[in-house]
Amino acid sequence: MTAKLDKKSMLEMYSKMFLIRKFEERTVIHYKAGQIPGFVHIYTGEEGVATGVCSALSRDDYITSTHRGHGHLIAKGGDVKLMMAELFAKKTGYCKAKGGSMHICDLSLGIMGSNGIVGAGLPIAAGVGCASKMAGKGQVCVCFFGDGAANRGTFHESLNMSSIYKLPVIYVCENNCYGISGCVKDTMNIRDIAVRADSYGVPGVSVDGNDVIEVYEAALEAVSRARKGGGPALIECKTWRHRGHWEGDPDNYRDPKECEEWLTKDPIKRFESKLVSQKIATVEELRGIEQSIEVQMDEAVEFAKASPEPKPADLYEDVYA
Ligand SMILES: Cc1ncc(C[n+]2csc(CCOP(=O)(O)OP(=O)(O)O)c2C)c(N)n1
Ligand SMILES: [Mg+2]
Q1: What residues have a C-beta under 5 A from ligand 2, the ion?
Q2: Does residue 181 lie within any of the structural domains?
Q3: 141 and 65 in contact (C-beta within 8 Å)?
Q4: Could you tell me the residue range of the domain that residue 29 belongs to?
Q5: Number of folded domains that form the chain
Q6: What is the band of 1 on the pLDDT scale with cuts at 50, 70, 90?
């Protein structure tokens, strides 16, 4: 395991991954109970990507997110109480119930928004990268997007622009092998999405997205280069979503055997066995972290349930157009 990380940092990573997992488990429970309206896209199985990448960032760095954004927001420090209240469509939520799961942002943490439009975060990231470069404070922007989004024009436009202007943008492709029911084997004729970086003169690398440390190391390298003016990078993280595309998706298009194989590569279980086998943490220490996260999630759900609903007149507040 890397020498750059001390025990405290690794336990923080474990804690983040577990918090994302528990947030999503609660989301599923309350979605099924009819307490969360709209659509939710669950991040379970991909925790190593958001956690590994955001662990290489500072508070004043930026991220753009996707429709599957809960993990990104939590990894960047998002408040799970305000997130859960937003999902419950309560007035105390991040967007006062006007955004829901797919439109949460927190500018104070550099979270430039999750986004229901596939590939929409890519041009926003180039813009944020441009602003960061002009500000000259060494901030970077991470752009999370999926394999499906990598086939949108916005991917190519954003990469090209970031390359020619040497913008501090780290493109993180979460290749979970599917865009809804479309398997990457049918939607593109390349094995690694990372090779696309080469067409824009940008360094590209493919990593095991279910290995949080491997993701962290790739992110750290890209972030350090971008901070020094070295320009953008593309990191493809191979991963797998444990659940359907959206909650309620019958998920009848993926091979159950493949799903089972990927479950054995669960990023949290893998990290736990590394921490324990390398004697970085004891099982008891990890169970202690997990218990405190369950309490944190109890509080977040209670806060969301107890919060008031918005009033019809609130529709006219915070409307800029
Ligand atoms: C511009 C646009 N086209 C289509 C959709 C419908 N849609 C929602 S998610 C999705 C698939 C996205 O796949 P990917 O980028 O791989 O992300 P994943 O869901 O796998 O995380 C599509 C086509 C959309 N929201 N926006
Ligand atoms: Mg995908």
Answers
A1: 146-148, 176, 179
A2: yes
A3: no
A4: 7-304
A5: 1
A6: very low
Residue with tokens 């949290």: 268
**Amino acid present at 27:** T
State the CATH number of the domain containing residue 133: 3.40.50.970
Is 320 a domain residue?
no
Å from CA of 173 to ligand 2 middle:
9
Query: Per-residue pLDDT tens for 195-244?
Result: 999 999 999 999 999 999 999 999 999 999 999 999 999 999 999 999 99
- pLDDT, one tens digit per residue, over 20-55 is 999 999 999 999 999 999 999 999 999 999 999 999
Nearest CA to ligand 1 atom 19: 179
Task: State the ligand closest to the CA atom of 238.
Answer: 2
pTM value surpassing 0.70: yes
List the residue whose alpha carbon is closest to atom 25 of ligand 1: 117
Is the distance from CB of 63 to CB of 71 less than 8 angstroms?
no
Which ligand is the nearest neighbour of the Cα of 117? 1
Residue 311 in any domain: the answer is no
**String of DSSP letters for 197-241:** GGGGT--EEEEETT-HHHHHHHHHHHHHHHHTT---EEEEEE---
Residues in contact with ligand 1 (CB, 6 Å cut-off): 67-68, 116-118, 146-149, 174, 176, 178-180, 245
